[in-house]
Amino acid sequence: MHGTSKMLALASSITSAMAAVQGFNYGSTFTTGAAKEQADFESEFKIAQALSGAPGTFNSARLYTMVQGGTTNDPISAIPAALNTDTTLLLGLWASAGDATFANELQALKTAVSTYADSFSSLVVGISVGSEDIYRESPTGQANGDDPGASPDTIVDYIGQVKDVLTAAGISVPVGHVDTWNAWSNSSVTSVIEACDFIGIDTYPYYQNTETNGIDDAKYLFDKAVAVTAAAAGSKPIWVTETGWPVSGPTENLAIPSTSNAKTFWDEIGCNELFGVTNVWWYTLRDADPGTPSPSFGIIGSSSTTPLYDLSCSNVSSSSSSSAVSSATSSAAAGGSSTTLSVAVSQSSAASAAAGSATSVAVGGSPALSSGLPSSQLSLEAQTSTAAATGSAATGTGSGSGSGSGAGTGSNSTVAATATPTPSLTTASTGAGNAVSLGAAFVALMAAMLAL
């Protein structure tokens, strides 16, 4: 026990010294459809950085599009806003509207690279090519009524185009893709994983409405979603690009939206597993902007800068909760440092794996895609036409939660539980290529522990 305490203390000290990126998701429009301007982004970024009681500074922003609202291919004004507020960016290029629209996204990226060349590498922590495109292309996404997506081949092609732009400019920035856990577990996305420098996962236990998904099981479901993704991702670092719990809205099976439950999810997932350990963009700072969507995930309301619940991690126990066990470990590697979160899925998932049983899971798209939310996708998707369903049903090792659509209703996706993987969420301080495996991290920590 004493040795374990020393190991965890060492891990904690290293993690503090190499704090990972943490921030929120930001759409390019208000709920009215009006485009956000630079001043709007600056206001939101400053509010995020000044959140009362927050565990560290939330000074990173994940975007969904490179294009400023109301223009054809001008760079989004969130970029100069980020420069003025010392906010880092996970840039996004919308990839589900066809080649012509993606060409405009790419042109906006080229212009941004040229305009902000001196600051680009330090400002941008990564670039996501698309968001949940493969999920929406799948039969599950189509059955849930979500908008057209893009095939794995299309995403791989687009990733290559983005990397070509960066190479030509002499810029080194991790390029990846964001999708749901069941999309990542599908064998058809192997080529996408190979093309990515990082894997972005969107997951919402709230929407996993065919399983026991009350707040007491949310951490367990989150860990399973990460496990499925990690099993498919291999050595690629995993960034949590969307997760959260609604403060209001409809009940999804046993999942009840409330500020109390949102606080519990923040504590058990954010404080216990993510903040300061891996790159994470929470969903979301504010979605009542100005109208209130249902469900609503915002930490603050439309006319306030005060959090709706306590953001401090003061009530978080050092021991694990629910039916999952998590521990933070850190290690250093030649050429760069990384911080790794180990999430061990136990109990019922292990039993399911041993029995080789299948778990049916309801999966939907990001709440950012729901009507009325301030997401950049909404204005872009108006340009798209219905795509044919060409994807295959998702299967993977283990079972997990997926992010849900606005109403959270839709058909199920079956995931075969054939193993109990232990995932690694890794943030590399000098780029995704410096990620260290869980095994190496564990060995390094054990050696350090024995030396104490």
From TrEMBL:
One of its GO terms (biological process) is cell wall organization. It catalyses: Hydrolysis of (1->3)-beta-D-glucosidic linkages in (1->3)-beta-D-glucans. Residues 389-430 are annotated as: Disordered. It is found in: Cell membrane; Secreted, Cell wall. It is a lipid-anchor; GPI-anchor. Residues 1-19 form the signal peptide. Residues 410-430 have a biased composition (Low complexity). Its EC number is 3.2.1.39. The keyword Membrane applies. InterPro entries: Beta-glucan_modifiers (IPR050732), GH (IPR017853). SUPFAM superfamilies: (Trans)glycosidases. GO terms for cellular component: cell surface; extracellular region; fungal-type cell wall; plasma membrane; side of membrane. Keywords: Carbohydrate metabolism, Cell wall, Cell wall biogenesis/degradation, Glycoprotein, GPI-anchor, Hydrolase, Lipoprotein, Membrane, Polysaccharide degradation, Secreted, Signal. It comes from the Eukaryota. GO terms for molecular function: glucan endo-1,3-beta-D-glucosidase activity. The keyword Chloroplast does not apply. Belongs to the glycosyl hydrolase 17 family. Glucanases play a role in cell expansion during growth, in cell-cell fusion during mating, and in spore release during sporulation. This enzyme may be involved in beta-glucan degradation and also function biosynthetically as a transglycosylase. This is Probable glucan endo-1,3-beta-glucosidase eglC.
